TrEMBL record:
CDD domains attached to this UniProt entry: ABC_TM1139_LivF_branched
Protein name: ABC transporter related protein
GO MF, one annotated term: ATP binding
Family: Belongs to the ABC transporter superfamily.
Domain of life from the UniProt record: Bacteria
A Pfam match: ABC_tran
Signal peptide segment: none
Key word Zinc-finger present: no
Ranges of residues in domain ABC transporter: 5-238
Amino acid sequence: MEPILQLNDIVTSYGRIQALKGISIKVFPGEIVAMIGANGAGKSTTLMAICGILPIDRGEIRFKGRSIQGMPPEKLPPMGLCQVPEGRRIFPRLTVDENLALGAFYRHDTEEIEKDLDTVYGLFPILKDRRRQHGGTLSGGEQQMLAIGRALMSRPQVLLLDEPSLGLAPLIVQKIFDIIDDINKTQGTTILLVEQNANLALQTAQRGYVLETGRIIMEDRAETLIHNPEIRKAYLGE
Ligand code: ATP
């Protein structure tokens, strides 16, 4: 099987600081892949490079067999690649409904958009209850749900999730991860997940990559990484 998303030897810099020093990743259709690593390892930078928010110095990014590096970021969701950024970035003064509608702003298939809205409200009933409330009045967990829901409104084939657990209480985090799993299973959405909560990420994913200072130092089945003593010591708090 061909990867749906592939990074070949990506190098990128902030000024003179090289943040990614040759990252190669493959994501196959239907997978959940986790990228774990300490603060500053380059996880968010990798997602921003994929999305075209950050230019790359070297390497190739392929999505569905096509080179996408250098493409304007707004071209990617219509192609089926959508990111949920770190910190959620929902629109606080727009309602839940309006935030979700923006996820589908470039689509014209009104009936299908309605169906997708029903699907999102089915996944996140709490958002349906709050559909006329402003995004800014939602709790942190609800805002994360809204950010994921908004991305789903673009009907992504690949969803990039940046730290969905950030700043949320453990119970809510578990709920969000259950829904991530559900989206993957019921919608067939492929997911690349960046997380500092390595334990949860590796429990949810089938495969994982471990990043350290801009390099991949390990890649394996998530099951194998979870039981690796080095990983347990460095990233799973043992
Ligand atoms: P985090 O969990 O903090 O998001 P991360 O693994 O996602 O960590 P990145 O945010 O990708 O790490 O950062 C990778 C490296 O790039 C770090 O050394 C960081 O200091 C540096 N960096 C990130 N953003 C910038 C920026 N806007 N300007 C300069 N350096 C940056």
